[in-house]
Amino acid sequence: MDHPIKRDHSRFRKIVKGRIRDNLRKYVSAGEMPLPKGDGTFKIPMPSIDIPRFKFGDRQQGGQGQGDGQPGDPVDGQPGEGQPGQGEAGEGEGNKELEVDLSLDELASILGDELELPNIEPKGKKTLESTTDKYSSIGNVGPDALKHYKRSYKEALKRQISLGTYDPKNPTIIPIKSDMRYRSSNTVVEFENSAVVIYMMDVSGSMGDEQKEIVRTESFWINLWLKSQYKDIEIRYIIHDATAKEVDEHTFFRTRESGGTLISSAFKLCRDIINSDYNSSEWNIYPFHFSDGDNWSTDDTKLCLDILDNDIIPQSNVFCYGQVESRYGSGQFYKDLNAKYGEKSDDVILSKIKNKDAILDSIKDFLGKGK
């Protein structure tokens, strides 16, 4: 039987997760993201949950004090007490916030439930071999740290009963060396699914801070879901204007250029990274491209489509394009991709991201097919 404290704690966590789920869309739209703590959990600020308590009604406010004295007199007659305080009274309630820790799987479960996301079916057969020691058997030798006390006790009991030395009136069980049992490990070879996510983003002048914030928020939640689906995941970042280069995460979200846009430069670099580092028979590959839809020319768009058809799509689980609305962007690239692939292709997913309120819907577009 569970201890009452454990039951209460479990019930409280269910309430917390329910509150987070109810407020997830508002939370994501505000651009807030859980903070990783470094131990596999994430810290999430949320409004505090008031503990139920009794409150007095109008008729139970207490009586009036009796005796000598005037309003404002100190209770114990100490000087300086009972005087009005300095400063002005504040307005409204204080900011009550509670920080809760949730694991990656718990957060992913909240996201998956809210968006009704299916589990991903990995592409092809798996891939990276790993070995795991599982303590699934019992041995006669081993270190004291692996001593199995219950099994050792049972062996001692069986020995004493068989020798006739066990006294039910004085049930003293004294294990000897031959009774000792130890947990023993078996090496298990497992094949784990692994994935790589390649983010590409247009950083030309038409992509402002608001657009990058949308990409940053969306990519966080996409990563969260994919990490819950794959044992091993790598993330690569590419930025481009007229030229493309691979960068780290910090640079990816903070770089802004003023040049023109050649989307093919990013697609070429993505193709080269896949060919160099990721065998599609061993990796589940997810290229994501975000831009406001501007491209230099129709000739470059044609080159992009050729690279997608011949190099990127055949090696990827799915290619995802997110068009972030910008006052300076034409949105033409979405139209070109839609004319080429539209809804007829399961290998290309297109999503329009009008603003922060559309982030969760866009994530569902990308991950809702379970690819």
Describe this structure in words.
The protein contains ten helices and eleven strands. By secondary structure, the protein is of the alpha/beta class. It folds into three domains: 4-49 and 96-115, no CATH class; 128-190, no CATH class; 194-367, Rossmann fold (3-Layer(aba) Sandwich). The strands form three sheets. The protein has a six-stranded mixed β-sheet with strand order 8-7-6-9-10-11, with helices on both faces. It has a three-stranded antiparallel β-sheet with strand order 1-2-3. The longest helix has 21 residues, at 209-229. The model is unreliable at 92-96 (pLDDT under 50).
Give a quick rundown of the structure:
The protein is α/β, with parallel strands linked by helices and 371 residues long. It contains ten helices and eleven strands.
Beta strand count:
11
Overall CATH class of the largest domain: Alpha Beta
Order of helices and strands: HHEEEHEHEEHEEHHEHEHEH
Mind summarizing the main beta sheet?
Answer: 6 strands, mixed
Query: What class do helices, strands and sheet pairing give?
Result: alpha/beta
Q: Strands across the major sheet, in which order?
A: 8-7-6-9-10-11
Our Rg estimate from Cα atoms comes to 31 Å
- The N- to C-terminal Cα distance equals 41 Å
- Overall shape: flat
Question: How helix-rich are the residues, as a percent range?
Answer: 25-40%
CATH homologous superfamily of the largest domain - what is it? von Willebrand factor, type A domain
Number of structural units classed as domains = 3
Low-confidence segments, given as residue ranges, are 92-96
Give the strand content.
15-25%
Number of helices: 10
Named at the architecture level, the CATH assignment of the largest domain is 3-Layer(aba) Sandwich
Residue-averaged pLDDT:
80
- What is the CATH third-level topology name of the largest domain? Rossmann fold
Quaternary = single chain
